């Protein structure tokens, strides 16, 4: 029997049992020789000895930055497998320069975000926040011709992994949603294959009943929805953001929502969290949730399961399904 590769966990110790509950950890232990030291600081106690023999890193939230100094401590490292979504916070180009394979469980993390977004689309299409506010105030909610999902136009910003999942679910819904897409990297032929209408961002804002944001946080996407574009939204429209807070100008959104003209469903904000007493936290037409769209609680085991599957694929010499390329770094969330 081949010797099991030496593997080091590089994540916050408090999440190890969440990411790797007993059945998942048993699978990992059967595949690899897992070092007892969990590394969060490459210079911390026991880290040097753990990293020196590591062939695999199984990373997670709290992983140290894998820069040249850290990688020098792990000369045998062949793969870094991330039991979470984005690797942007810890994987540097130096990882790929040294021929180290990188994988992410972003596919596993995407599913809950897609479902969260779809749940929010249904709430937004029924103007649930507005109706609830009337109900709380003791008024019978008024019939609103702007309410209802059937035939609603949904504008998707960004054909990311999550954006494409949302598109697929929207097109499969019984409501007959019309789906617009704004993404400068998608061709007309690709949009046709996705089943969406490709438009520029201004046109998407003008035509959509609901706008849902799924673009990465890049310099060119900072405040993608700014004062001018938010003003293009029709009365009664809704904005959903489960991507990154910096994509929307918070001050501009606060002004628009403050008039009651549009609704907002925000799982991410800028800043995050919003300060106590921020107007967006107090508005009845705004729902702010604390970055919970991705894997939470019992769902986190999906990330560990995906990562252990990747360890098994690596051990068998098979391609990594969650492989991340160095050129992806500039465009991932």
UniProtKB/TrEMBL annotation:
GO MF entries: glyoxylate reductase (NADPH) activity; hydroxypyruvate reductase [NAD(P)H] activity; NAD binding
Record key words, sorted: NAD, Oxidoreductase
SUPFAM superfamilies found in the cross-reference section: Formate/glycerate dehydrogenase catalytic domain-like, NAD(P)-binding Rossmann-fold domains
Top-level taxon in the UniProt lineage: Bacteria
D-isomer specific 2-hydroxyacid dehydrogenase NAD-binding domain sequence ranges: 123-293
Any one cellular-component term (Gene Ontology): cytosol
Listed name of the protein: Phosphoglycerate dehydrogenase
Annotated organism of origin: Actinacidiphila yanglinensis
């Amino acid at each position: 029997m081949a010797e099991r590769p030496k593997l080091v966990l590089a994540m916050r110790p408090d999440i190890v049992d969440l990411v790797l509950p007993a059945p998942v950890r048993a699978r990992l232990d059967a595949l690899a020789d897992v070092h007892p030291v969990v590394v969060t600081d490459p210079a911390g106690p026991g880290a040097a000895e753990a990293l020196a023999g590591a062939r695999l890193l199984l990373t997670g939230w709290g992983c140290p930055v894998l820069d040249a100094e850290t990688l020098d401590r792990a000369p045998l490292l062949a793969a870094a497998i991330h039991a979470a979504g984005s690797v942007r916070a810890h994987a540097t180009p130096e990882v790929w320069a040294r021929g180290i394979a990188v994988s992410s469980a972003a596919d596993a993390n995407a599913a809950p975000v897609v479902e969260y977004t779809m749940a929010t689309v249904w709430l937004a299409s029924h103007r649930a926040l507005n109706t609830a506010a009337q109900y709380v105030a003791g008024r019978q909610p008024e019939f609103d011709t702007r309410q209802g999902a059937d035939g609603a136009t949904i504008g998707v910003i960004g054909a990311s992994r999550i954006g494409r999942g949302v598109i697929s679910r929207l097109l499969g819904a019984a409501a007959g949603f019309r789906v617009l897409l704004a993404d400068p990297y998608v061709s007309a032929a690709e949009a046709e294959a996705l089943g969406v209408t490709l438009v520029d961002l201004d046109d998407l804002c003008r035509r959509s009943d609901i706008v849902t944001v799924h673009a990465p946080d890049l310099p060119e996407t900072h405040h993608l929805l700014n004062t001018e574009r938010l003003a293009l939204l029709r009365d009664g429209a809704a904005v959903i953001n489960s991507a990154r807070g910096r994509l929307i100008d918070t001050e501009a959104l606060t002004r628009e929502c403050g008039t009651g003209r549009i609704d907002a469903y925000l799982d991410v904000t800028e800043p995050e969290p919003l300060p106590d007493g921020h107007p967006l936290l107090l508005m009845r037409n705004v729902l702010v949730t604390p970055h919970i769209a991705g894997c939470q609680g019992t769902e986190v085991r999906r990330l560990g399961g995906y990562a252990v599957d990747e360890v098994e694929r690596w051990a068998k010499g098979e391609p990594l399904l969650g492989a991340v390329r160095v050129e992806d770094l500039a465009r991932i969330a």
